Amino acid sequence: MGLLNKLSYPQRLFVWLLGYSLLMVGCFVVFQYHREKEFKAEEIDKQLQLINTYILTELGEGHDVPDIRLDDFKPFDDIRVSVISDKGHIIYDNTLDSLPKTNHLDRQEIRDAVRHGAGYAVRRHSESTGNYYFYSAKKSDDGNIVRTAVPYSVSFRGLLQADYGFLWIMGIITMVMCVLGYFATRRVGLHIIRLNRFAENVENGAQISDTEPFPHDELGEISNHIVRLYARLQQAVADRDSEHRAALHEQLEKERIKKQLTNNINHELKTPVASIRVSVETMLAHRNMSDEKQILFLQRCLTNTERLQRLLTDVSLLTRMDDGSASILKELVNLTDIINDVVEDRQIIAATKGIRIENFVSHNVIMAGNASLLEAVFNNLIDNAIVYSGGTRIKIELISIDNDKVVIALSDNGCGVPPEHLPRLFERFYRIDKGRSRAAGGTGLGLSIVKNAVILHGGEIFAETQCSGGLLFKITFLRNSK
What parts of the sequence cross the membrane (predicted)? Predict the structure, then answer.
């Protein structure tokens, strides 16, 4: 019943009609099968009883059972003949070399013959031969029983099969009636289902769609008009609410990002500020320290001051990008020249680390963009490779260019990045090796700046570890981003 309740109203009506028809046909099938089988079994029993009567007549005239010829009896060629005493013991069987000593009075055909003078069994296993037989028994006046049997073979089973022609015709007619009944009730059923669903959806405040039309008649047209009008009204309200939710979500997201950024900045400021304070306090407490130690502490203060400056610069740039693309001025720039300038500026620093920068971008790439942000993209990527890759080569190449976009690849031959870190590589303040990153003076914002700058130019950036080793950044810029 649970599955039936999940069906639609026309389907349930059709299922009930089909079930009723199948039940009616099934009753006729069972009745007709048993009636036909019983009738045919009785016909076979009558033929075997004629043989039993013939054998009893021959025995009454003094003939022995082996001498009685049964060749004239058709259609049975292989007939098993047994003679059973009134005590239930077999005294003759034409298929056995030795007679069994078991009592046969409990056999169905023998029991019926003792009580009623004759009996039969349709299919029973013989313990003596191991085969199945159709048995027919008849009791003589002296109390002995003559039993004939024919093997229950495939052909014999076919003889007992009922004639299903009439039943198949009835079944086909019933199915045709069910199909016609289904189509007759389907139209009204669709009206009922859709109106019921519409009423439930309106009550529950669900989204109403007018994509499923009612049947094309007067009631269907009226229903279609009602649904479409309500759907349009609901869509207008949904659009208004969606705009409000989007605006609220954007505002909350900005506040969350700013709060997160503030917390992260506070955490990042602690280390350099603490280092500067310790250095200054140490110098104040030990006025007579050597010049070498004073220079050491002053260099430490300068290093942490530079780190603070880089952090503030990166935060200022991120805040500027978070305010939206409207505040970022774009003009036609030559991306090739920007890359050349960055590479030339970083060659000396890279050389001190034993790293060679190879620039294969020679085709002039003109696009709409912000020069300082594009410069920041390649500055941060190259600096990241110089400081953390551990390789000896940085390669920049033009992958593809068309009227809409340009794809640039920047790779190194260093140690690469473990796969588990790649999804979070562009998160703010995310570091793979925090101690090493801070020791190198990194702010943890470089790759986040890269990703935001690329997005502001309508593009996307992916990072992957190369099979040959090293990290590969694939950057896509839209050439006409707004």
Answer: 13-31, 165-184
Has residue 180 been placed in a domain?
no
Q: What is the pLDDT of residues 287-343, one digit of tens each?
A: 888 888 888 888 878 877 776 676 666 666 666 666 655 567 788 999 999 999 989
CATH of the domain at 422: 3.30.565.10
Confidence of residue 210 (pLDDT cuts 50, 70, 90): low
pLDDT band at 348, cuts 50/70/90? confident
Domain that holds residue 22: 11-160
- Tell whether 284 and 330 lie within a shared domain: no
Q: Is residue 4 part of a domain?
A: no
Per residue in 68-122, pLDDT (tens digit) is 777 666 666 678 888 888 888 888 888 887 888 888 888 888 888 889 889 888 8
Whether residues 467 and 359 share a domain: the answer is yes
Contact by Cβ (8 Å): 134, 149: yes
User: In the chain, how many domains are there?
Assistant: 3
Query: In this structure, are residues 126 and 132 in contact, taking their beta carbons and an 8 Å threshold?
Result: yes
Residues 125, 112 contacting (CB under 8 angstroms): no
Of 320, 351, 379, which marks where a domain is finished?
320
Q: Which of 286, 281, 287, 320 is nearest to 301 (CA)?
A: 281
CATH (domain of 227): 1.10.287.130
Q: pLDDT, tens digit, for every residue of 410-467? A: 999 988 888 888 888 888 777 665 544 444 445 667 788 788 888 888 889 999 988 8
Q: Which residues, 6+ apart, have CB-to-CB distance to 226 below 8 Å?
A: 198
Residue 178 maps to a domain: no
